[in-house]
Specification:
This protein is an alpha/beta fold and about 350 residues long. It contains twelve helices and twelve strands.
């Protein structure tokens, strides 16, 4: 591509502005591994942003770095994550604890390991409000019942007294959502919230998130490996591979005019029920471990059907796509233009 390297502007109306986020693991005599490599994106008030990619692409590490939840040792975090004018990466753990739950909340992938197995659900939801809003226990428990009802848990008064193992997977995930929304946070991060659930419960959980975001005006970062999950939920989509964003655009633009071969691969692996695609699904060859360093070339080159010598020798920069709509950015030497066959 010949366009100039894309430099996102720091928007004054952004609730969260992540710039050049880098996370490295290792060091002190051990080899370093860069899990997140210069990631930048914005989240505006009331907006839903998607971070999409296979397991190991860095999307969950990105969210943990923003939340300050990475281990205290064995990693190095650089860049900035400015939330409402404050760089979260510069705060100490006490200051971050004050913001987590109150201003920023997170829904984790596995509710069974995220919930305390020996504490009733109602107490766990109430503790968040007692900690950040100073509510008395009785008032917090009453609010907990309202929250459980709001996220669609049947008979919430009874569920308040039950333990996590007594709830189904779908209800445990709803309880986590209730905990995350207890203090009406301005930003919600959902890390693969539907992965362990069957498709019917997945749809219900996504509908709950959609309604809550619309009703409360909360911003949402949806982390997932499935572009189908973000199809009816996200306003903007960032596709990640090997720690970097390789394509970014609005939801409609990504689905209508995907141009990065990796994005095409993710879309090609989604089953279709409308009969518009015949034959077997087109899986992306190899695994996420089959890559080369971004400093040497395009990390996706070993798996890419479009790769040439330049892809293995020169690292592509994130550029504004000259053929797409404004805001459609791409990191690729050989994008798949609309109307061409990515399998040819």
């Amino acid at each position: 591509m010949t366009a100039a390297a894309y430099e996102p502007e720091v928007g004054g109306d952004s609730l969260l502005s992540v710039r050049d986020l880098v996370v490295e693991f290792g060091g002190k005599g051990r080899p370093t591994f860069r899990a997140v490599d210069g990631v930048s994106f914005d989240v505006k008030p009331g907006q839903t942003i998607g971070l999409v990619g296979e397991s190991g692409c860095g999307k969950s590490v990105t969210s943990l770095a923003i939340m300050g939840l990475l281990p205290a040792r064995g990693n190095k975090v650089a860049g900035s994550a400015t939330f409402d004018g404050t760089d979260l990466l510069t705060l100490d753990q006490r200051e971050l604890s004050d913001r987590r739950g109150r201003d920023i909340a997170m829904i984790f992938q596995d509710p069974l390991s995220s919930l305390n197995p020996v504490v009733p659900i109602g107490v766990q939801v109430a503790e968040v409000m007692q900690r950040h809003q100073g509510l008395k226990k009785a008032q917090a428990m009453q609010e907990s019942r309202i929250l459980l009802d709001r996220v669609g848990i049947p008979d919430p008064a009874r569920r308040l007294k039950e333990y996590p193992h007594q709830l189904s997977g779908g209800m445990r995930q709803r309880a986590l959502i209730a905990m995350a929304l207890a203090c009406k946070p301005r930003l919600l991060i959902a890390d693969e919230p539907t992965t362990a659930l069957d498709v019917t419960i997945q749809a219900q959980i996504l509908e709950v998130l959609r309604e809550l975001v619309v009703d409360s005006g909360t911003s949402l970062i949806m982390i997932t490996h499935d572009l189908g999950v973000v199809a009816g939920l996200c306003d903007e989509v960032n596709v990640m591979y090997a720690g970097r964003i390789v394509e970014s655009a609005s939801r409609h633009e990504i689905f209508a005019h995907p141009e990065h071969p990796y994005t095409h691969g993710l879309l090609g692996s989604i089953p279709r029920l409308d009969g518009s695609r015949e034959g077997a699904l087109h899986a992306i060859p190899g695994s996420v471990a089959d890559n080369i360093p971004w400093t040497a070339g395009c990390a996706f080159a070993p798996r890419c059907t479009q790769a040439t010598e330049i892809c293995r020798d020169q690292s592509p920069v994130l550029e504004q796509d000259p053929t797409g709509t404004p805001g459609h950015t791409l990191r690729c030497h050989h994008p798949i233009l609309p109307g061409t066959d990515p399998q040819s």
